[in-house]
Amino acid sequence: MTTAIHSEQINEIAKALSNAQGEFPDIPKSKTVMVNSREGKPSYSYKYADLADIITAVRSVLQKSGLAVSQVVTGGHTGNLVTTILMHESGQFLRSEIAIDKYSNMQQLGSALTYIRRYAYCGILGIQADEDDDAQNLNGSKSNKQQNQKTPPSSGKEAPPANQAQQENPTPKKENKSLEDKLADTKAWIEGVLEDENINQKDAIKKLTNCRNLWKGLYQEFSKANKVALYQDGLTQFDRALGALGHTEETDEEDAF
């Protein structure tokens, strides 16, 4: 979940930010991602700027405009909070807070924090640090790193095996998987999306939202097996992941169980 806060007055910081945005240089996109498309679709690559490149590129303009950005990560029993503050010399400020689910694996936590810090920094300054690859994504293209992730649940009665992870919208496949295994695979897939630094925030939200809807299609199967608690656990995992990306889902009748 994302919380936006600002000082009582923002006229000075708004003016300074507007001037700074007009002077920001082109951000060097030094990182390249190779993307393998589905069969019959051309492969392509796109570039993006990492957080260090972004900070270096805008630092002098921010200083000239009387602006500064600070990011603080705090932890608690339920997870972590990334606070990004854009401060102006007048004392006015803009602040965003993004909650991140708790991770037991430090590498996964580090990847999630890197992802959130980068997009929070760009978001508060109004910077685009990626090439626009939305058109390619709509054609079903996927990065190499994404292809190594586990597959989300299908809308049929059975979830596809892990070796079908290269499919964006997997088709139902019959196999003897327990509901517990489906939940475990889904959790692993969600974590893979969150820690993938090569997917932009918009596409991550889209993937998670689509697969959350697929998961909801499994409700009757969980209900018949008297395992609604497992179903609800899966929904909770999706909602926490979407919340970490600043997106919330409306609760419907089935979600309330």
Automatic annotation (TrEMBL):
Residues 135-181 are annotated as: Disordered. This is Erf family protein. It comes from the Bacteria. Residues 171-181 have a biased composition (Basic and acidic residues). Residues 136-154 have a biased composition (Polar residues). Pfam families: ERF.
